[in-house]
Amino acid sequence: MKTAIATVSISGDLKEKLAAIAAAGFDGVEIFENDFLAYDASPREVGRMVRDHGLEISLFQPFRDFEGMPEPQRKRAFDRAERKFDLMQELGTDLVLICSNVSPISLGGIDRAADDFRVLGERAARRGIRIGYEALAWGRHVSDHRDAWEIVRRADHPNVGLILDSFHTLARKVDPETIRRIPGDKIFFVQLADAPRFDMDLLYWSRHFRNMPGEGELDVTGFMRAVSATGYDGVLSLEIFNDQFRSGSARSISVDGHRSLVFLMDQVKRIEPEVRIEVPEMPDRIAVDGIEFIEFAANATEAKALGSVLHTLGFRRAGRHISKKVELWRQGAINIVINTEQEGFAHSSYLMHGTNVCDIGLKVEDAQATVERARALGAEPFEQPVGPGELNIPAIRGLGGGVMHFIDRKSELAKVWEIEFRADVDELSPEDAGLTRIDHVAETMAYDEMLTWLLFYTSIFKTGKTPMVDVIDPAGLVRSQAVENQEGTFRITLNGAENYKTLAGHFLMENFGSAVQHLAFESSDIFASAATLFRNGFKPLTISPNYYDDLDARFGLEEDFLEALITYGILYDRDDRGGEYFQLYSPFFGEGFFFEIVERRGDYRGYGAANAQFRIAAQKRHIRAKGMPKR
């Protein structure tokens, strides 16, 4: 099965679009007419340029307002079609998309429309051209693929077929199972798009909010299962109208698109292995159990400062690398690595971002299989020289310039700390604060990159995504969404900054795109942990007394309980099921990085979104108190 993408889906002129589409691995391209008209080259030159990129023109589109027109508009519609056939032959493509009529003067009637397509099919056949009819969700008379198929069926012409688009079917809540009754050889082309669920005008929704399969909330997998059941084995193409995509990186969006198609086909094939879908060989989505380690890149001076912060949090230096300037800090099941090497990836990351999280190690079911799946989905493998006595740990390049390593329990990788590190305990060990594991890693990116990150995690790992929430910053909104496994042992929060005036945006600007902005450590008793932290010299972020007054008014807290929250600077939230969440924040380390200690009680699955604006306000007060520039 071949893959394609519509030129309207990405930014740039036609030449730039084709280069990005080819580099991402697509087989073909839908030429959107406006992209062709805006480009200064003849149809033959454009066709040659497409083929020079190793692509084929899978479809030319759109041809509008054809069927059911009264005279003289009907004659003009046929004349327009002949002109488009001329153009298509010059371009070197044989399939045109005709979308259902939206003209207010168009006439209804399935037989009338079928007659028009039968006549046009005869004309197209003489030119070696095929016609695909698509039901627009907002079509005047035809807005349902079932009606479009009936028109194609009655037209009964070998050059007239159906084009299916997942958005038009799913946005109108048409049951995709009805597609199974359509003969596969009469489906000429399939377009795919996902979207978040909105209650809005269908045309506006379609033109501005589509996204890649797997990035939204529509049942594109169910749609594709139904298509596959027909025996269709033609092109699968992306037609994505999205304002952010059309202003973003053409290369990045194209890579996302190809990844989304491969991921979708892999899902369908695993659910229905008998369907005729060619999918790259790859393992199934990988089970991830949690975070094995977090690695910071730093210089010697900043590493010492970071070590001091970790001391106050109850971490102890547990070892040094056998051959590199790398330290291991440990508490509970948390492993923090500080790398001060003067060469290699970590050093490059430090030169670019300053002290930052350059590497995340994940505990996975099978480390090698993880890399194999990631590579099949377009991720770039990561390798650097392995020294004597070191393990070759499978890794890929993540997003935001970082690296991800994978540790499993079925190989020597499980002994990485014993093999690569020698014990070296602090002379002045702090008191253990009862921090047990990493609850979540918070990654910050520009808002228009969030879908890329979501697709990356959910396509490789057995994870789901939570609903998006708005985090209120006095300088604007930050959109937040989490990726997590079912067990809650692996959680990544993604925070999309819409401008550089927000705290998240300030972090991105000052760190040149570094992704991990904070780490949240889990405690089983946050009040005991807080007491220990204070004894270790930890100074928490100062929270406004007004917050606690409101907290008491909202929840009616016991006096002693409220007093303990105030004493330690702990924030509190409670969900509708009685689950409770406690948060304690450190001040900033460097340009906007911070630590968080959390405790979950009951079945609380959130991240304290209700507290975010108060935490941000406190952090901005901290910035001003330190004399840092106000953003």
List descriptors.
TIM Barrel, 8-stranded parallel beta barrel, 631 residues, elongated, 20 helices, alpha/beta, 2,3-Dihydroxybiphenyl 1,2-Dioxygenase, domain 1, 9-stranded mixed β-sheet
Commentary on this structure:
- There is one protein chain.
- The chain has 631 residues and is an alpha/beta fold.
- The protein has 3 domains: 3-271, TIM Barrel, CATH 3.20.20; 288-423, 2,3-Dihydroxybiphenyl 1,2-Dioxygenase, domain 1, CATH 3.10.180.10; 435-625, 2,3-Dihydroxybiphenyl 1,2-Dioxygenase, domain 1 (Roll), CATH 3.10.180.10.
- The chain is 35% helix and 24% strand.
- The chain is built from 20 helices and 25 strands.
- The strands form 3 sheets. Strands 17, 18, 19, 20, 21, 22, 23, 24 and 25 form a 9-stranded mixed β-sheet that branches.
- The chain is elongated.
- The two termini are 50 Å apart.
- The model has no long low-confidence stretch (mean pLDDT 94).
How many β-strands, per DSSP? 25
CATH topology of the largest domain: TIM Barrel
Helix content: 25-40%
- Ranges with pLDDT <50 over ≥5 residues? none
